[in-house]
Automatic annotation (TrEMBL), chain A:
<dbReference type="InterPro" id="IPR017896">
    <property type="entry name" value="4Fe4S_Fe-S-bd"/>
</dbReference>
<keyword id="KW-0411">Iron-sulfur</keyword>
<dbReference type="InterPro" id="IPR009051">
    <property type="entry name" value="Helical_ferredxn"/>
</dbReference>
<dbReference type="Pfam" id="PF13183">
    <property type="entry name" value="Fer4_8"/>
</dbReference>
<dbReference type="InterPro" id="IPR024569">
    <property type="entry name" value="LutB_C"/>
</dbReference>
<keyword id="KW-0813">Transport</keyword>
<dbReference type="InterPro" id="IPR004452">
    <property type="entry name" value="LutB/LldF"/>
</dbReference>
<protein>
    <submittedName>
        <fullName>Iron-sulfur cluster-binding protein</fullName>
    </submittedName>
</protein>
<dbReference type="InterPro" id="IPR017900">
    <property type="entry name" value="4Fe4S_Fe_S_CS"/>
</dbReference>
UniProtKB/TrEMBL annotation, chain B:
<feature type="domain" description="Cysteine-rich">
    <location>
        <begin position="11"/>
        <end position="92"/>
    </location>
</feature>
<dbReference type="Pfam" id="PF02754">
    <property type="entry name" value="CCG"/>
</dbReference>
<dbReference type="InterPro" id="IPR004017">
    <property type="entry name" value="Cys_rich_dom"/>
</dbReference>
<protein>
    <submittedName>
        <fullName>(Fe-S)-binding protein</fullName>
    </submittedName>
</protein>
<feature type="domain" description="Cysteine-rich">
    <location>
        <begin position="140"/>
        <end position="224"/>
    </location>
</feature>
Length: 468, 261
């Protein structure tokens, strides 16, 4: 997927004025936040689990090579294959090769953000394969030819009416308007695809080193049909998703469902280990795992290591007021919201996503709900620091910072200018505020500027106490 | 600066930039509350900004230059107290981080960090003070400013203190913990997004039925008050300290009350 994060500002403004989008976002916001809060409140050890999860992830990241090697050995022992992909291109090639080797015509897909990250669908379609997304949300946006706007609710930006239109156009009507009818219609269409699929591709929420298993969670069961009915199952996953044991996986599963959708557990949690064994009733003939680096090992070595704890629950975006205002597409690439504003510049380049770390009020709500306690605001600030160091900051802002520093480190000058400012602003104010200020239109286009009283506090204080 | 004989803790008041220019009344309210609670208050003249604008813009060097200035101006006081969760969170949390690789300044930053307090939490958690005979006739709703709330754990203290004010009725709004869209320079860099956020905030304030909004950070309050004024909403806006000190008798920020119709 081509990155369009440079257009963030325009896309954000467009999103704010898109009435359907705002309607969809408003609805989703209320649901996710309330349900997560309720789940967190009902589990007394929830905060303790977050701390445990953070520590466990840190331990894993400190020994990532060890656990990945253990994982690879276990997958191999179970009859599967592990492939290592340095970047998106390598990952696409590995998967394409497998698909072409088995002469795949139809490929079904469970939800996988890594497959979005590596631009997999385009590569398969360009090579003549039919690719079908089986997660309902992914299916909807595939019909709309759009990328996901949320990592766990890819079609969260769509209203029910828009889905009705899409389904009517794709399935040939009659137009359904009730959610259960729409879901049934998609189910009927997809059912046939599962049986025809040559290859099923899923993500991996967790990879278990001790057993060589991949774990996926879904609410629709689509992932299970994708990975058990096709002849070949390919798991795409980032290298950071490995956990030592099944016990560790349960720790994260408890946090994931609660943080993501506000459920105690997702409807389906499926553990896959290797291909079909002789006495298995079903399952794929081949089982492959494509482990994608794509910038992750670089993050592991640097100051953004904390970001690799991410379990892709989406709580940060559900609680982000900026995401809530503009939706996921404004961010211009695969990962939106706070986690995306950290990941996108790191994976796609700081200069390709200047606005993402900056379009944040550093209010900290994301970090306060993150199940693995990633200090997202600190990481976003750190990216701003890198932009500053690499001279990517706009010239005007750089100049303003220089002037500010010069003045603010000279208290007498600073206070004198504050006094002038207070007087001027007070003089031009009408009825307690200023409606329009040419050099501060960013402020006054949106709101009045409250007027100062005329004299600064320090001035008045010195007048009062100085005379004592 | 002051000749008052020393009694109680010696507090250096951090006069935040916005308070100094836009709302001196908040400074005087802070002084009154601190003195009523037995503190000796001084306002060092060699202070300016805490450095947060530089820090959050990624200019760590500029932030450090400002931080050193604040440390020098305040380290000889028993406490540094300011009427802003945002500035005080910078001093409390960010100063030690800014100097983590500096053996000379790290201990000084750490020492100041440990005696830095946001005004309301200082009154409640350190001094265990109650506002002396303050009165406010009105229904008040409280906005939780993000830095104070998540950075310093300020949530119950201002509400408890406001509960002591005669005549004041506290009414919670929906989503009081959600950012108002100020975010320092964010609000002028991304005005449309900021507008959407402050619009949501204002809708919740109006829905609460309160006639007054209070909060602990002038940045947020100026953003919200300016928006209320722009849409001619008859809600007064005060800093919590003004209400507690009994100095909330004027028109409030942006004079929104005058616009009331």
């Amino acid at each position: 997927m081509e990155i369009r994060s440079k257009e963030f500002k325009d896309r954000a403004v467009f999103a704010i004025h898109d009435a359907s989008l705002q309607q969809a976002l408003g609805k989703a916001r209320g649901g996710f936040v309330g349900k997560r809060a309720q789940q967190a409140a009902e589990l007394p050890e929830f905060e303790q689990l977050r701390e445990e999860a953070k520590n466990t992830k840190n331990h894993i990241l400190d020994h990532l090579d060890h656990y990945l090697e253990r994982y690879e050995a276990a997958v191999t022992a179970a009859g599967g294959h592990v492939h290592w992909a340095r970047d998106a291109e390598e990952a696409r090639k590995i998967i394409l090769d497998i698909c072409q080797r088995v002469d795949a015509k139809t490929v079904t897909k469970g939800k996988s953000m890594v497959s979005e990250e590596i631009g997999l669908n385009e590569a398969l379609i360009d090579n003549g394969m039919e690719v079908i997304e089986t997660d309902l949300g992914e299916y909807i946006i595939q019909l709309a030819h759009e990328p996901p706007s949320h990592i766990i609710a890819p079609a969260v930006h769509k209203t029910k009416d828009q889905v009705s239109d899409l389904f009517e156009a794709a399935h040939g009507g009659p137009r359904k308007t009730e959610v259960p009818d729409l879901v049934n219609e998609a189910r009927m269409v997809l059912r046939d695809k599962y049986f025809r699929a040559d290859v099923g591709i899923t993500g991996g929420n967790f990879l278990v080193a001790e057993t060589g298993s991949s774990i996926i969670v879904t609410n629709e069961g689509n992932g299970d049909l994708t990975q058990t009915l096709a002849k070949v199952h390919i798991v795409t996953s980032g290298i950071e998703r490995v956990v030592p044991t099944l016990d560790d996986a349960t720790l994260f599963l408890r946090l994931l469902a609660r943080s993501a959708t506000g459920q105690e557990t997702e409807t389906y949690t499926t553990i896959s280990t290797g291909p079909r064994r002789a006495d298995d009733l079903d399952g794929p003939e081949e089982y492959h795992v494509v482990l994608v680096d794509n910038g992750r090992s670089k993050m592991l070595a640097g100051r953004f290591k904390d970001m690799l704890r991410c379990i892709r629950c989406g709580a940060c975006m559900n609680h982000c007021p900026v995401y809530g205002a503009v939706g996921g597409h404004a961010y211009g690439w695969v990962y939106p919201g706070p986690m995306g504003s950290v990941l996108t510049p790191l994976i796609k380049g700081l200069d390709n996503a200047y606005d993402l770390p900056n379009a944040c009020t550093l209010n900290g709500r994301c970090a306060s709900v993150c199940p693995v306690k990633i200090p997202l605001p600190d990481l976003l600030r750190e990216l701003r620091h890198m932009q500053h160091q690499q001279d990517l900051t706009p010239v005007m802002q750089k100049r303003a910072l220089k002037v500010w520093r010069y003045v603010a480190t000279r208290p007498k000058l600073y206070h004198a200018l504050e006094q002038v400012g207070a007087r001027v602003l007070s003089a031009i104010a009408r009825n307690g505020s200023i409606r329009r200020l040419p050099l501060a239109s960013g402020w006054t286009d949106v709101r009045d500027l409250p007027a100062p009283a005329g004299r600064t506090f320090l001035e008045l204080w010195q007048g009062k106490r100085g005379q004592k | 600066m002051t000749e008052t004989p020393t009694r109680g803790p010696r507090v250096g008041l951090f006069a935040t930039c916005l308070m100094n220019v836009f709302r001196p009344n908040v400074g005087f309210s802070a002084v009154k509350l601190l003195e009523d609670a037995g503190c000796t208050v001084e306002v060092p003249a060699n202070q300016t900004c805490c450095g947060q604008p530089g820090y959050n813009s990624g200019d760590y060097d500029a932030a450090r230059a400002l931080a050193r200035q604040v440390i020098e101006a305040f380290e000889h006081y028993d406490y540094i107290v300011g009427p802003s969760g945002s500035c005080m969170a910078t001093i409390r949390h960010d100063y030690p981080v800014l100097f983590q690789n500096d053996d000379v300044w790290r201990p000084r930053a750490q020492a100041l960090s440990e005696k830095s307090w946001e005004l309301l939490s200082f009154l409640a958690d350190v001094l265990h003070a109650a506002p002396a005979d303050a009165r406010y006739d009105g229904t008040v709703t409280y906005h939780d400013s993000c830095s104070g709330l998540r950075g310093l754990g300020i949530k119950g203290q201002p509400r408890a203190l406001l509960g002591e004010v005669d005549g004041l009725k506290l009414k919670e709004m929906e989503d009081s913990e959600v950012c108002c869209g100020f975010g320092g320079t964010f609000c002028v860099k991304y005005p449309e997004i900021s507008e959407k956020m402050v619009e949501d905030k204002v809708r919740n304030i109006l829905a609460s039925g309160a006639d007054t909004l209070v909060g602990g950070d002038l940045g947020c309050l100026m953003n919200i008050a300016g928006r209320l004024k722009r849409i001619h909403a008859p809600v007064k806006v005060f800093h919590t300290a003004e209400v507690l000190a009994g100095l909330a008798d004027g028109p409030g920020l942006a004079g929104a009350a005058k616009e009331a119709d």
